Amino acid sequence: MDLLSIILIVIIVLVVIIALYLILTYNGLIRFKNRTDEAWSDIDVQLKRRHDLIPNLVEAVKGYSKHESETFTKVTEARAEALNAGTIEEKAAAENVLSGALKSLFAVAESYPELKASQNFLQLQDELSDTENKIQASRRFYNGNVRDFNTKLQVFPTNFFGKMLGFKDYQFFQITDEKERQNVEVKF
């Protein structure tokens, strides 16, 4: 075998190794991206469930407290804003506002003992509490997938190829306002 053949074989082997590395890196990033998208979808499903419960809850409270229209308006507006949010960041911010509005609604309910005894209200309260727990679990799952994806994308040498292939970091689902870190009050 002459020197030119050896050099040609070495070049072909290097090209094959680089191509295999790129294929494996790309497929790995796609897997992490899909898991992260799936995790976001889980959050979205739970948020939809919460959005569906809110009108029933507002109507149940309205029946007992006719003078709290400002609170009902805030909850309704926050729900509409959350439903219309487009990006993950917009949705996270809108959901935080909605959580705050729900706290106000439950604070109103505290003032009406008949409402606290209502079977319909208690059922809605239980469903909302269950949904809030599922949302929190989904957020943790999503953030775990975002951490894994971002780590995979940022470590060397994937960071070089990942950016070239058009992958971008995901944003964590975060609460920016400290008041929003408190759970929605659903116990009486």
> How many beta-strand segments?
0
Based on secondary structure, the structural category is: mainly alpha
Relative helix content: over 70%
Helix tally equals 6
Approximately what portion of the residues adopt beta-strand conformation?
Answer: under 5%
Overall 3D form: rod-shaped
The quaternary organization reads as single chain
Mean pLDDT, all residues: 85
Stretches with pLDDT under 50, minimum 5 residues = none
Largest sheet: none
Sequence of secondary-structure elements:
HHHHHH
**N→C terminal distance:** 86 Å
Rg? 25 Å
Question: Can you walk through the features of this model?
Answer:
With 188 residues, the chain is mainly α. Helices cover 78% and strands 0% of the residues. The protein contains six helices and no strands. The relative contact order is 0.15. The mean pLDDT is 85.
Brief synopsis:
By secondary structure, this protein is an all-alpha fold.
Question: Which structural traits does this protein have?
Answer:
single chain, mainly alpha, 188 residues
Q: What's the layout of helices and strands?
A:
Elements: H1 3-62, H2 69-84, H3 88-110, H4 113-117, H5 119-154, H6 158-164
Helix pairs in contact: 1-2, 1-3, 1-5, 2-3
